[in-house]
Amino acid sequence: MRTVNHYSKGQIGTIEMIMVLVIVIVILVIGMIFYYKFFIGSVESKNLELNQQEANVLLASLSSIPELQCSFRTITRDCIDMGKVITFKDAVTNDRVHYVDLFGTKNIKIELIYPKDNEGECNLNHYTSNEYPGNCNKWNIYNNLNTKDRAILSTPVSLYFPITKEFRIGRLIVETRL
Amino acid sequence: MKKAQADMIGLVVIVILFIIIAIVFLRLSTLEDSESIIKENIEVSNLLNAIMKLTPCNNIKPLDSLADVIDNCNNQPYCGESNCKDYIKKQVDNAASSSFDKESYSFTIIRNGAVFLNTGSCVGNTKFVDTAIMPKFTARLEVCK
Question: Which of A53, A109, A178, B109 could connect to A173 by a Cys-Cys bridge, CB 3.0–4.6 Å?
Fold first, then answer.
């Protein structure tokens, strides 16, 4: 016995429309998934970009804050006074809320790159020694970043040592979260 | 409207969409490049400022900055070197090699309208240049990648 399905023109039209709708919905869903992924990705990259921009601005402005900038008889110069750096660490400890508000979640360091004699972190003992600044080369001036995923931004900077009246070349380093 | 005409319109719409996507992509990629160039230029400018202020010779008091040494250099011996030009070259080379990892550089001093000193060699295409204008000379640092 043979069964023959006879579809009318209207039924074929309806099936065709349903198939087109299904395909359009599938394409829309795929598009939405891609858009969502792209959107999340772009928000994350924007977040990273803004973090890095903030760190760049900090990097450019740090050497001109009065707590660190060189000044000779009230005339400021484009360098970091390493005498002020030692006391700046104490200032950060004493008024942490103010500096956390100013610098945020970052680490700020200074590294002596030329001429450099010995390596190591500088503290008050190194500072009071006769060999200073030849006895160490790293100053951690602000620590407020614990994560290991971090972006490191740096720029060369002129360092002034008031005890010996020397100018050396250093690198100002800002670490920010990724 | 004939079927062929509808197909043509569809094709034109798709082509226009592709062109818009390409323009947006190109614009975004250009923006990223310009930011990186600005950052690198600041770095070169800071290094040039630090080199000019550097006081590398501790034997002569009061200490001379490298800018002072360049000002007063007339091929005389200076700080253990037989010629002050060699001393300046040595200091610039040491400072630049301590600051750059992969980049090459060229440092030029122009004094009295002529090249007084040139050290380093720029290899590569992308260049960041900064010039320090001092009262008696001009120092130019060029960095290549």
Answer: A109
User: A169: distance to nearest CA of chain B, Å?
Assistant: 6
What pLDDT score does A30 carry? 92
The backbone region for A120, taken as left when phi is positive above 0, alpha when psi lies in -120 to 50, beta otherwise, is left
- pLDDT number for residue A13: 84
Q: Are A121 and A144 in contact (CB under 8 A)?
A: no
Cross-chain Cβ contact B50/A169 below 8 Å: yes
d(CA A135, CA A139): 12
What's the pLDDT tens digit per position in A79-91? 999 989 888 888 8
Cα separation, A158 vs A114, in Å, equals 10
Evaluate if residue B28 carries a pLDDT over 80.
no
Domain boundaries, chain A: 39-177
How far apart are the CA of A155 and the nearest CA of chain B, in angstroms? 5
